[in-house]
Amino acid sequence: MSRRAKITGWGKCVPPVSLSNADLEKLMDTNDEWIVERTGISNRQLSHVENTDLAELAARRALACSGLDASEIDLVVVATCTPEILCPSVAAMVQDRIGAINAGAFDLNAACSGFVYGTSVVAGLIESGFADKVLLIGAEKLHFAMDYRDRGTAILFGDGAGAAVFEPSTDGVGVLAVDLGADGGKGGTMLIRSMGSMGEPQATNDPEIHRLYFEGQAVFKIAVQGISASAKRVLERANLTVDDVDLVIPHQANARIIDSATRRLGIEQSRVFVNIANLGNTAAASIPMAICDALEAGRVSPGDTIVLTAFGGGVTWGSIVLTWGERVEPAGVHVGELPPTDMTSLDLLQDNLRFYAPLHTDKPSVV
Ligand code: UT7
């Protein structure tokens, strides 16, 4: 049987500071009822450390879960749109920190579709024999780009990281098919302009350039259509139908988007995994964190057919269909934690609120 890429390890890192809807009510004109009804989100977690710290811990947990040593990994890929610096990559820093001394490393940016794009790259490299054991991480520290007075955007996003170890299989399990797509013409609907080489070389502290700008309703429509069409295509490519699918693990962007897209696909909600309520939208980290939560919740059984599907900035979209292997329990556990903090979300966001204040001269800069 031909060679495929299967997931043998999974791990996540959820940062410890909670930002509830009640906290958001103190920062902007919103309320818990509106947010829950329109998005399904009650809480998100914020990181007091850097993106690489989140990525490293998720990676260590996924490695322990796989039972592999870091020296056995031959490639580290990090999907992110919020690296703390552009060069070196988050992947290279993680490669060093975990001691993956035999691995190559690079970052990939497909925004919220990053983990699906990453899975397609990893699967291709493993199927071709160019790589054997690959660590794929989705990690984001999105709150730095959030203007917490922009109620149409900042209610959605949280920080976090998730990781998966992929290894070759020859018994038919693993990635069966891939569908990737993009429409760069609609890229203006979701923008983070900072960290690029745009303009003259000069220090820029312009909050307008740093913040995530996006057009909620336009993105909503693109997402619903994009996800359902892409998931249909990937199933066709694998000669499967919706009836064959045991679980859809979608990018957690908005519970209503997931609901509408999976209804279009024709799959009932009991076969769709949703964990957005406590984590919000964590972009490239959302699918690998959801994979961990689905396993923990007993929603994945050996041999299950699983669809991963996402859309995001670019705009980009993509879907993967895979067969899960035999193991649904971790082979080992990494006991490390992030450094502790006693900060509240409002403590953590003071600098952020101050930075974005010039965009809202009518509102107080510090809460
Ligand atoms: O991973 C990809 C990233 N992007 C996304 O996933 C976002 C996709 N889009 C969405 O999730 C939704 O469009 C939002 C949650 C952003 C907005 O929900 P919506 O149902 O599309 O609301 P809307 O923009 O149509 O706004 C409806 C009303 C407006 O008031 P008026 O003009 O009708 O008086 C908004 O000003 O709700 C108001 N509104 C709010 N009210 C309370 C917008 N945001 C809020 C808020 N709290 N946070």
Characterize the structure shown.
Helices cover 32% and strands 21% of the residues. With 367 residues, it is α/β, with parallel strands linked by helices. It has one domain (4-360): 3-Layer(aba) Sandwich (Peroxisomal Thiolase, Chain A, domain 1). Helix 3 packs across helix 4 and helix 7 runs parallel beside helix 8 (255-265). The longest helix is centred in the middle third of the chain and has 22 residues, at 216-237. The chain is globular, with a radius of gyration of 20 Å. The structure holds oxa(dethia)-CoA (UT7).
Strand content: 15-25%
Bound molecules: oxa(dethia)-CoA
Q: Any idea how many domains? A: 1
Structural class by sheet pairing and helices: alpha/beta
In short:
The chain has 367 residues and is α/β, with parallel strands linked by helices. The chain has helices spanning 21-27, 32-39, 51-66, 90-98, 114-128, 207-210, 216-237, 255-265, 276-279, 286-296, 345-348, 350-356, and strands spanning 4-13, 17-20, 43-46, 75-79, 104-108, 134-140, 160-169, 174-182, 190-191, 213-214, 247-250, 305-312, 316-323.
